[in-house]
Amino acid sequence: MGSCAAECPAPNTDCSGVCTNTDTDPAHCGACGTTCAAGEFCSAGSCTPECPAPNTDCSGVCTNTDIDPAHCGACGTTCAMDEACVVGECTPLDLGFDGTTGDTWEMVGTSPVRGLQSWVPRGQTHMYAASGTTVHRWSLATQTWETIADAPNSFGSFAAPTLSGGAIWGITMPSVSRWDIAGSSWTTPRTDVMGSNTSAQNATDRAGRIWSYNGSNQLVRYDPSTDTLEYFPTGVSATTQTRVVYDPTTDSIFFGGAFSTPLYRWDIATSTLDSSLAALPETNLSDAMCSDHSGHIYAALGCGGSTVWQYDIEADSWSQIPDYPTDHGCNTSCSVHEDGWLYMTDLGGQPMYRLPLF
């Protein structure tokens, strides 16, 4: 479904009034006006005679129909501006959570590892968690954990995987790791990610691109459909175990380093940093931060204690939600499932709890 817009939104480029993706458009391949020859495809900004798997030829556009909102699930199926393409289905970006939570946390098992996948789209059957090369997944139906094959590259002690296009991903400098859910196998699409590994969290934006943070104080973005890496210097130093989440209501990445006070917002369309957000109500951010994709961020603050907080993006304000049932320590992680639950756990071997979201 088309819509009029005042600007050409990222990752597209304005080519003389045509808003297009130069990574995939054969009429503007790599740059405006660069046209591929008849029979060639535009892949990762270069003309090529073949459309490499897992992409699909959509009338000369070589794209991944699992994540491309212009060709979602099939060529020509276009998602609305307020939808993302998630595993080949157009899914609402704003899930309608109004910030209200339940009053009581419910224990739902024991987590074998920390590093919960911070966002689980509606309809997904599992939530993944990682620590080092060990990866587990939680069945939302049976409420049990199972171990999958070890990752080929370490996620670090406090990282978290993310979902995009039927696969679980992690940018774990210097590698990009991919778990094919249907094929139950790992691959390493890239081994040249710049910067040191900081055990950063991974997040997925509307276009299915993976975001993380490296030790050179850069946001790192990987596009699975074009196999391209981009780096965005932030000027933010002294971040470690950086928590990274995506908010579709502002099309922004929010991030902050564990054990540091500020929370930052990166505007994807303009590639600009906002460092003027409301101060954290406690001394620092722990390892738990996740987004409900409806304009709210949840975080466990302080190193120890039981307080959990909600950040309202539009109001730029923090408010406390029901206390965690135990001392959440410094190494908590959290996940929002679109079916209406906030999950949180501490180190591996500790209880995992969930709180209703409305």
Topology overview:
Elements: E1 13-15, E2 18-20, E3 41-43, E4 46-48, E5 56-58, E6 61-63, E7 83-86, E8 89-92, E9 106-111, E10 119-120, E11 126-131, E12 134-139, E13 144-147, E14 162-164, E15 167-172, E16 175-180, E17 185-190, E18 203-204, E19 210-213, E20 218-223, E21 228-233, E22 243-247, E23 252-256, E24 264-267, E25 272-274, E26 285-291, E27 296-301, E28 308-312, E29 317-321, E30 333-337, E31 341-345, E32 350-356
Parallel strand pairs: 10-30
Antiparallel strand pairs: 1-2, 3-4, 5-6, 7-8, 9-32, 11-12, 12-13, 14-15, 15-16, 16-17, 18-19, 19-20, 20-21, 22-23, 23-24, 24-25, 26-27, 27-28, 28-29, 30-31, 31-32
What is shown here, in short?
The protein has 358 residues and is mostly beta strands. It has no helices and 32 strands.
Notes on the structure:
- The protein is mostly beta strands.
- It folds into two domains: 1-93, no CATH class; 106-356, Neuraminidase.
- 0% of the residues lie in helices and 41% in strands.
- The strands form ten sheets. The chain has a five-stranded mixed sheet with strand order 9-32-31-30-10, with no helix packed on it. A four-stranded antiparallel sheet has the order 14-15-16-17, with no helix packed on it. Strands 18-19-20-21 form a four-stranded antiparallel sheet, with no helix packed on it.
- Strand 23 (252-256) and strand 24 (264-267) form a beta hairpin.
- The model has no long low-confidence stretch (mean pLDDT 89).
